[in-house]
Amino acid sequence: MPYATINGVKLNYEVHGDSGEPLVLVHGYTGDITDWRHQLPAFAQSHRVLIVDNRGHGQSEAPPHRPAYTVEQMASDVQVLTRELGFERFHLLGHSMGGAIVQEIALETPERLLSLTLHDTADGFSSAFMNPAMVAWRDWRFRVAEEQGMAAVSQMNSPFPPPPHMPAERLEETKGRLSGMTVDAFIGAWNGLSAWQGTQERARNIGLPTLVVWGDMDSPFIIEASERLVKTIPDAEPAVVPECGHSPQFERPALFNAALSAFLSRVSAGAPAR
Fold it and tell me: What pLDDT was estimated at residue 154?
């Protein structure tokens, strides 16, 4: 596994594919590069695909300071890493928290992007995180993390039932990933996403070919936010994956890959103008 020290933090990353337009995939909160295992075979044949563990996730280093996990900081990590790897212009996709990260990149340096895909994400998370049920769930998990450690957090039962196509083995992998996180990364990344300013007033300035994709069984908050992003971002395209919750790339990868592939084919630099 290659590593690169970016903004003082050692990040784990992989590049798959030898040719084609670059495609960068950014995972969500508590995720890691294995989130994309069903996308690599499909897209590495036609693209150079970069996957990276965000700071504090997967095999990347976890700073011990919780304020180090802001959305803006993680966006900077992706920006610097792509420059070091020679990805001058690329397609960019972000899932959930990764969607917040890539929106910041799209607004900061649109000239570097060929397209943007927002995957089961939102234009802000603070309102959802203030929901009383979410606050209670957060506080309970944070208390267990502080008092008993992340192994105990991984064994906590989720109040959200798994969607119908979520592989059982993936649920077990999720427990392992949680166990491997540090308490600082677990709490710091949540706090960073909660404090993110969002793009409700800025998304209209995203002037890139944009796909907004979500599962039709995701939370009402994510579905409403996705629909709002489609309306706000000029000429954004929607794609709804049926019978899916928050992770269609894992739940129904063939359908997810087909939607993403069709979009990338339409917006490729070599594609005919629409």
Answer: 96
What's the confidence (pLDDT) of residue 133? 85
Burial class (CB in 10 A: 0-12, 13-18, 19+), 225: buried
State the pLDDT at residue 274.
41
Q: CA 71, 162, 136 angle in degrees (round to 5)?
A: 55
**pLDDT of the residue at 129:** 82
> Tokens 């800025």 correspond to what residue?
202
Q: Which amino acid is at 145?
A: A
Spans in the chain with pLDDT lower than 70: 269-274
Helices 97-108 and 71-84, packing angle to 10 deg: 70
Token pair recorded at residue 76: 């900077």
Q: Measured in whole angstroms, how far is the alpha carbon of residue 89 from the centre of its chain?
A: 19
Looking at the chain, list the stretches that DSSP marks H as alpha helix, in order from N- to C-terminal side. 40-43, 71-84, 97-108, 126-129, 132-148, 150-154, 168-180, 183-195, 220-232, 248-251, 253-267
- Please give the Cα distance from 148 to 77 (Å, whole number): 30
- Calpha distance 61→267 (Å, rounded): 35
Q: Output DSSP code: residue 49.
A: E
Q: What token pair was written down for 26?
A: 């950014």
The pLDDT of residue 269 is 66
Q: Is the dihedral of CA 12, 98, 182, 166 positive or negative?
A: negative
R_g over Cα of the chain: 17
| Closest of 171, 27, 197 to residue 96, by C-alpha | 27
Q: Considering the entire predicted model, what is its pTM?
A: 0.96
Sheet holding 237-241, edge to edge: 3-6, 9-16, 48-52, 22-26, 90-95, 113-119, 210-215, 237-241
* 119-154: pLDDT as tens digits: 999 999 988 888 888 899 999 999 999 999 999 999
pLDDT for residue 150: 98
